[in-house]
Amino acid sequence: MPTALITGITGQDGGYLAERLLDEDWQVHGLVHAGGGHVDELRRRTPSVELHEGDLADAAAIFELVDAVAPDEIYNLGGISSVALSWEHPLLTAEVSGLGGGAVLEAGWQLKQRGGLEVRVLQASSAEMFGMPVQSPQSETTPIAPVSPYGAAKAFAHHLVGVYRARGLHAVSCILYNHESPRRPPQFVTRKITRSAALIALGRQDSLELGSLDVRRDWGWAPDYVDAMVRAIRYPDPHDFVIATGESHSVADFVEVAFMHAGLRGWRHYVSLDESLIRPVDAAELVGDSRKARRMLGWRPAVNFEDMVRRMVDSDLRAVSS
């Protein structure tokens, strides 16, 4: 039975990926942070996953775990997942999301060297690495110039993928643009919007506070992006792939679709702006050119922007109602 190891398995992508691999009859192991949340929910959804407590910042522990599990595929999805949080903890972000990615790659390399196994490693990179991009849409060849601690840490791990690939490791990077689902934690702006729409529609909240309505992002459906990662790691040769819809929408667009679907017309009546929620430096408009992934992997996003937002609102309406 083939074996996979997923870091960040309690996150949005990790959960969907675990379910996908279990459906394919893989043995799945996951790294969870001691005291971290969502473990009970993960166990309920995927009770057959074997979980291991650890920390991406502990390189020695990562080496031991990879050696013990001896996985065929390693998906490094772990790290600081919030750009906003990275501003509050820049050094921790560098240690976990940057150096942690290096530890996973080195562990995969060491396993390959010891056992002669073909170990495949996927790094979940981010469009935030492009910062203020010199071109739009961005592709795999767009210069990397991050403007946040999150983007800088992701850029370091992304560059290491190329380094280890040159050493002979099957190292793959998926440059993921924003992707959402009902499993996105509520502190993220997208879930904050859809949950507020549900609460306001049911009369349990009066208004929604946001930072900027003008920020534009390329938003996709998380399970579609998990599908892209599986396709990428199993492609015969290792590559970097931009995973994106190719469409840009503003935060205001997101709010409008969410509130309309919840039955709230005139959404601006419910929204107020709070300057304290604006990030010190925010990336410019990010929209991805995923033609390489579409051509080589046969990947296409199956869920469009409006449907993604509506699915999230429906989920929050059910959760709030119950």
Q: What does it look like?
A:
With 322 residues, the chain is an alpha/beta fold. Helix content is 44%, strand content 16%. It folds into two domains: 3-179 and 221-243, Rossmann fold, CATH 3.40.50; 184-217 and 247-280 and 303-321, UDP-galactose 4-epimerase, domain 1 (Alpha-Beta Complex), CATH 3.90.25.10. It has helices at 12-23, 39-45, 59-69, 83-88, 90-115, 149-167, 189-201, 222-233, 251-261, 291-297, 305-321; strands at 3-7, 27-32, 50-53, 73-76, 120-126, 170-176, 179-180, 208-210, 216-217, 220-221, 240-243, 249-250, 271-273. The strands form four sheets. Strands 3-2-1-4-5-6-11 form a seven-stranded parallel beta sheet, with helices on both faces.
Q: What is the CATH class name of the largest domain? A: Alpha Beta
CATH architecture of the largest domain: 3-Layer(aba) Sandwich
Strand content: 15-25%
Could you say which overall geometry the principal axes of the C-alpha atoms support? globular
Describe the structure using short key phrases.
Rossmann fold, 11 helices, 44% helix, 322 residues, seven-stranded parallel beta sheet, single chain, alpha/beta, UDP-galactose 4-epimerase, domain 1, two-stranded parallel sheet
